[in-house]
Amino acid sequence: MVIDLAKVRTDLEALMTDTVRVRRLTGESDPIDGSPVWTTVYEGVGALLSTHGQIVVRQLLGSDWLGEASAWYQLMTPLTAPVADPGDQVQVISGPDAAFEGRTWFVEARTQASTVEVVRVTRLDEQSGAVAVGA
């Protein structure tokens, strides 16, 4: 069986209908109010998937390209997106499901990597309150 990885990549990227932002702490504080300073490391297409969404993607593609996941949420981005680090903050800026907009997740572990990649997959943990906004 020969698998066309370019087609799989194209199929997965077609499912990325959200605009996502990944931010990272700079280690600096705002001189006025002392709040942490964040820098954007990626803003572009992606898909935020709940565990249910991960199952749906598997069913749509007929294969499990996202791997076994213990995380309730995963961020799927193109391979051109940078690798996310633990503690990076993820927000959905816009997308077809407005319920995700304004919610915040933190990267739980370094972006998954392998020698054969078709998409970046990052495990997330949802946060709320002061932790979520970086206060």
Q: What is this structure, in a nutshell?
A:
The chain is α+β, with helices and mostly antiparallel strands and 135 residues long. The protein contains 3 helices and 6 strands; from the N terminus they run H-E-E-H-E-E-E-E-H. The chain has helices at residues 5-14, 51-61, 130-133, and strands at 18-29, 36-50, 73-77, 89-94, 104-107, 120-127.
Please supply descriptive tags for the structure shown above.
single chain; 135 residues; alpha+beta; 6-stranded antiparallel beta barrel; disordered C terminus
Describe, in plain words, how this protein is organized in 3D.
The protein has 135 residues and is an alpha+beta fold. It contains 3 helices and 6 strands, in the order αββαββββα. It has a 6-stranded antiparallel beta barrel with strand order 1-2-3-6-5-4. The radius of gyration is 16 Å and the shape is elongated. The termini are far apart. The relative contact order is 0.22.
User: Order of helices and strands, N to C?
Assistant: HEEHEEEEH
Report the uncertain regions. Answer: 129-135
Helix/strand-derived class? alpha+beta
User: Major beta sheet, specifics?
Assistant: 6 strands, antiparallel, barrel
Number of strands: 6
What portion of the residues fall into strands of 2 or more residues?
35-45%
The rough form would be described as elongated
Helical fraction equals: 10-25%
Distance between the termini: 52 Å
Tally the helices: 3
Radius of gyration: 16 Å
Residue-averaged pLDDT: 80
Q: How would you write the strand order of the largest sheet?
A: 1-2-3-6-5-4
